[in-house]
């Protein structure tokens, strides 16, 4: 009898599905099967959406204060999982994503923060706006949009799921969450536990690949598809969603530029700069994808980055010696290996850095060393694409205006960052960049930023926003009432 668990779809409190399962494997030890997962076909997706639609009508009538209390209780449970560390769901997510335990523990804590932040934002975002003059009263109210299909990626599954879960539920919507095929275990187990806090059918979970996503996007009872992922899938969702004129919220990829100015503090800021590019082995949407460094300090900056990366230990995330984990899935790993090969064939100088923790088992997982591309040419594929992995092209520049033009000369527009000792210079340059977000001196949101900063991109990096009142509004629709005085 196999000890490998089977993960089914969770619909209105029941575990459903009998289709042939697919495997989820440990990216650091590909021979290890973590779970057999039963995908949802169109009929099961319909069952989940129909359950959500029935539950949503009742959930929308629950007072906002009670909905908020349930989401806050969910935040407490998520934080309790963070406190358990590897004795709880953190271990599941570490094994399926390949991310380090410290990163996943912080992800659970960040998810708890996100849930609480959305409850706080709801106090403003869901409050009716009332205007009055001598002849009439206008009330602008926000009501829940309805059933939300939340399609979640593999790279930060818990926090990215909660950034859809919390605003949807506090706004009065019901959810059907589609898990990422390579990282469905932690999400499913967490959501099944959180579902106890809500009426049956408010939270539903389905698994699968394109068929399940297409069934959700096409379903007439789904009123919003909230998707985090890549542009190819987003375009397919948008085309399908058009048939029923449903709303979409997309948080997509980027080709985020980082610009170092000549007053950059090399000794102090190199660790933060490297975290901005190589955190989670470069597998996060707003990672630095291309770095522009002034000619006057280029060699010193490059050498300092190389020294920092060469100290990294690449290995299995559960090995305490590891500081740099594997690539999550074989498809992304193969893309990155191809990108490296094509860049070398194009004449680029690539420097691989770091040390394997266990060289004998290197080929058993999706392991690769972090790579710097020295003096990368602007047209190199590694500069113009979204790598989504530990490959960073470093470009030398003389003219800041030319760098701004290069930074903006892409169809992407998610994030950007500026590295300087002069706040005024940083702010002035930030205003010239075409991006949904710009960070100065750290490629991350501060605690204040996580609460108040809209998260999302422009151009082909997204539609709509997550976070704060802006993100919560995505899960509502406007109802305006005009009262004429007698």
TrEMBL record:
Catalytic residues in the record: 251
Family under the similarity heading: Belongs to the aldehyde dehydrogenase family.
Source lineage: Bacteria, Pseudomonadati, Pseudomonadota, Alphaproteobacteria, Rhodobacterales
GO molecular function, one term: oxidoreductase activity, acting on the aldehyde or oxo group of donors, NAD or NADP as acceptor
This protein's UniProt keywords: Oxidoreductase
Entry keyword Methyltransferase: no
Domain of life per record: Bacteria
PROSITE patterns membership: ALDEHYDE_DEHYDR_GLU
Keyword Oxidoreductase: yes
SUPFAM superfamilies attached to this UniProt entry: ALDH-like
Protein name, per record: Aldehyde dehydrogenase
Positions of the Aldehyde dehydrogenase domain: 20-480
Pfam families: Aldedh
């Amino acid at each position: 009898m196999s000890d490998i668990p089977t993960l089914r779809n969770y619909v209105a409190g029941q575990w459903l599905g009998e289709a042939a399962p697919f495997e989820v494997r440990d990216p650091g030890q590909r021979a290890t099967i973590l779970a057999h997962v039963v995908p949802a076909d169109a009929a099961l997706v319909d069952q989940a959406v129909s359950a959500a639609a029935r539950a949503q009508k009742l959930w929308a009538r629950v007072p906002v204060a009670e909905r908020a209390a349930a989401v806050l209780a969910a935040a407490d449970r998520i934080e309790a999982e963070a406190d358990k560390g590897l004795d709880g769901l953190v271990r599941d997510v570490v094994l399926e994503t390949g991310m380090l335990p410290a990163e996943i523990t912080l992800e659970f804590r960040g998810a708890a923060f996100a849930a609480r932040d959305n409850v706080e934002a709801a106090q403003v975002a869901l409050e009716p706006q009332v205007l009055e003059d001598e002849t009439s009263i206008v009330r602008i109210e926000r009501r829940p949009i309805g059933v939300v299909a939340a399609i979640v990626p593999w790279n930060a599954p818990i926090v990215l799921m909660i950034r859809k879960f919390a605003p949807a539920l506090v706004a009065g919507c019901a959810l059907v969450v589609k898990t990422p095929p390579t990282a469905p275990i932690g999400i499913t187990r967490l959501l099944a536990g959180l579902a106890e806090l809500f009426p049956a059918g408010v939270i539903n979970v389905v698994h699968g690949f394109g068929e399940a996503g297409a069934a959700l996007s096409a379903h007439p009872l789904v009123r919003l598809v909230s998707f985090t992922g890549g542009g190819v899938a987003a375009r397919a969702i948008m085309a399908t969603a058009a048939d029923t004129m449903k709303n979409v919220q997309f948080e997509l990829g980027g080709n985020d530029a980082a610009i170092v100015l000549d007053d950059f503090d090399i000794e102090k800021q190199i660790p933060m700069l490297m975290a901005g590019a190589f955190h989670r082995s470069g597998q996060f949407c707003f990672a630095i994808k291309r770095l522009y460094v002034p000619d006057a300090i280029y060699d010193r900056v490059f050498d300092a980055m190389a020294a920092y990366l060469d100290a990294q230990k690449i290995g299995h995330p559960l090995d305490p010696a590891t500081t740099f984990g594997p690539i999550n899935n074989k498809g992304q790993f193969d893309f990155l290996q191809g990108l490296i090969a094509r860049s070398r064939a194009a004449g680029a100088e690539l420097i691989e850095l770091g040390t394997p923790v266990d060289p004998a088992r290197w080929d058993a997982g999706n392991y690769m060393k972090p790579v710097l591309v020295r003096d990368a040419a602007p047209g190199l594929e590694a500069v113009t694409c979204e790598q989504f992995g530990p490959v960073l092209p470093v470009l030398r520049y003389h003219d800041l205006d030319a760098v701004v033009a290069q930074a903006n000369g892409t169809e992407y527009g998610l994030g950007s960052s500026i590295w300087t000792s002069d706040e005024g210079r940083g702010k002035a340059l930030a205003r010239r960049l075409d991006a949904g977000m710009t960070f100065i001196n750290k490629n991350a949101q501060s605690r204040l930023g996580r609460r108040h900063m809209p998260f999302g991109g422009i151009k082909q990096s997204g539609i709509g926003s997550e976070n704060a009142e802006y993100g919560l509004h995505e899960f509502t629709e406007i109802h305006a009432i005009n009262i004429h005085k007698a």
